[in-house]
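forwarding from the other thread:

> can someone predict this with 2-phosphoglycolic acid?

sure thing
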Amino acid sequence: MSAAPRKLYMGTNTKMFKTPGEAREHIQLLRQLTQEIDPALLELFVIPSYTSLPAAVEAADGRIRIGAQNMGWEDRGQYTGEISPLMLEELGVRMVMIGHSERRHVLHETDLEEEKKVSCALRHGFQTLLCVGETQMQKEYGLTEETIAVQLKIALRTVTPQQAAERLWVAYEPVWAIGTAGVPASAEYAEKVHRAIRRVLCGLFGAETAARIPILYGGSVNPENAPELIVRGDIDGLFIGRSAWEADRFYSIIQTVLPLFQQKEGRTAV
Ligand code: PGA
């Protein structure tokens, strides 16, 4: 499998936490802290609430990618409360997260809805971060790989290899690992599932394209477990909640994992 040179992916979803002013402050500080890092080595992104997006885009100043936490699957229509790709585009937002665990399990989104959203996002040229993950019960019943294969195969049904190679990212976020009640997955477990995700992507798009799709781990990532996760095979980045909501804490995780990732990729540490 010939993998293109890969960079480290590090991002945070701030869920329903930061006001526009708080998001601006967080992103401005993160931008200042990370300004010396070569963007060829690091893909840094923040996914704030809809109402924070204009402030976030301004504060990021093109240095940090800004994404939306969700998106409707039509350009316009009778969908009260939904936000369309055209609305995001006009704000300068070119990335969207689809199928976060809280959308699926708290707000009851289905795999078929994720399919429509992924298809719409890619049609509009958005960088699309698809989240997948099994529940505690699915894990206990030994259904992790099956569950993830179903989520991927449905959500990605209409996606072409070219779209996947250029604009698809996947985040593995076990439902049982996320949030204050979550228990982080061990690095060994996460690596095993990431390998299974890569196999499904290979089946869908072929080996060369699958190798180009970054797979990020998320779910209670913290300064202690980040280093052991990032050195594992097929873990291309970390998608962090709580531990990244203070810019200096997030920056210190980035500083720790970037050289480890570079070593893993066979490059000289930065
Ligand atoms: P957490 O959130 O790091 O706070 O567990 C992860 C996520 O929901 O993406």
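The beta strands are 8-13, 42-47, 65-68, 95-98, 127-132, 168-172, 215-218, 237-240. thats all i got for now
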